[in-house]
């Protein structure tokens, strides 16, 4: 059974048709590259999956059940997490504090409620170990590399045991070494049975970790192919319009 199914999804803002009649399914434990030029509809589509927008038309199903979401917390409740391009981390806090941001664990001492730092540090450390990341729970975000910051953002999705993780340009503006680290993190999510949608403009990244690639152009899906049956040249042609559709 597919983790997520989109059927004839469309989204318009007044006269602007951002996404037009898009259908596809996502299987458990696969990495799918979502590609397209600026304005192709990628962000709008992802925001519908993440609960930010309601589709104007069409339907979504999660593990066979109808899925209607009015806000991001609804998506999280269904096991859908998003790692934004800006990561939304607090530089003055530790890695563990960022993992638990908004989901802190408390203990009661009589009438007093205090943060249970010990439990949060311990669990965050376990998640970083599962991801084989060098990030340490007590490290401050301000002192971290781009790859380590991505590890913290990804650890947040593991805390909630997400089934589907949407990653928006995770390798933008980081070094080659850090790109390799982030791609390894994506592979480890897949190995743990998590489905990952990788939104990216970087062709080498998609072709190195994705099982499948979906291409949007002007709001329409123009390709949904196994990586093994495609090529960077073909995907570039689909993105630019040199190739109409496959």
Question: How would you explain this protein's 3D organization?
Answer:
The chain has 246 residues and is α/β, with parallel strands linked by helices. The protein has a domain at 4-91 and 161-240: P-loop containing nucleotide triphosphate hydrolases (Rossmann fold, 3-Layer(aba) Sandwich), CATH 3.40.50. The protein has helices spanning 42-49, 72-77, 95-99, 117-130, 146-159, 176-191, 203-209, 232-240; strands spanning 4-13, 16-26, 31-35, 57-62, 65-67, 80-83, 106-109, 112-115, 164-168, 195-199, 212-217, 220-226. Strands 6-9-10-3-11-12 form a six-stranded mixed sheet, with helices on both faces. It has a four-stranded antiparallel sheet with strand order 2-1-4-5, with helices on one face. The chain has a two-stranded antiparallel ribbon with strand order 7-8. Strand 1 and strand 2 (16-26) form a beta hairpin. Helix 4 crosses helix 5 (146-159) and helix 5 runs parallel beside helix 6. The chain is globular and about 65 Å long. It starts with a strand and ends in a 6-residue tail after the last helix.
